[in-house]
Amino acid sequence: MSSRFSIWVLLLLSGVGLGALQAAGISQQQADAFSQKMATVKQQGTVGTKSQGETPRRTPFTESELNSWFTYRGGEVMPAGVSDPRVTLIGNGKVKAAATVDLEAIAKQRSSGRTLDPWSYLGGRLPVTLSGVLRTENGMGRFDLEEAAISGIPVPASVLADIVSYYSRTADDPDGVRLNDNFKLPSQIKQIEMGAGQGVIVQ
Asked: I need a labelling partner for 53 at 20 to 30 A (CA). Which of 120, 143, 146, 171 fits?
């Protein structure tokens, strides 16, 4: 899986939850299963565009597989400063997740020093949580943020937008992902169906 695709897995298949998430069902076997499925998705994405009426390729995955992958494989491709991600798939597109994020570098870059600037009070490694709805259709997606918090304290969407932008930057995309913007799904993915505890990638 490319680093860019893995960042999308983190940022777009997850929103972040409002409490500690349980590590039930985490295993090396499930991490391997998720890796194999993502390799299949990537390989299928290199095949030519599907013809009209051809049966869509469907790759199911579970919440436990995704969280197992984060536990055993995520460190290989996660951006430095983001650790311990956990995801909860609620159903009907709603997702929650949590991660520990190093906010020090962002705070130094973003803080204006003004009293009402949230970045004037943030720094260090803190738990960041969010929740929202992932909407995907016809090869495009959008994540609609509903709630975000740092150390359990609600924060404005602009703070989360700064975090997402900072940690999703690449050489090809120096501005990173902009929260709530429409985005093109990778690997010829047409849709991601999100149910309770499981999802299906449709190509």
From this structure: 143
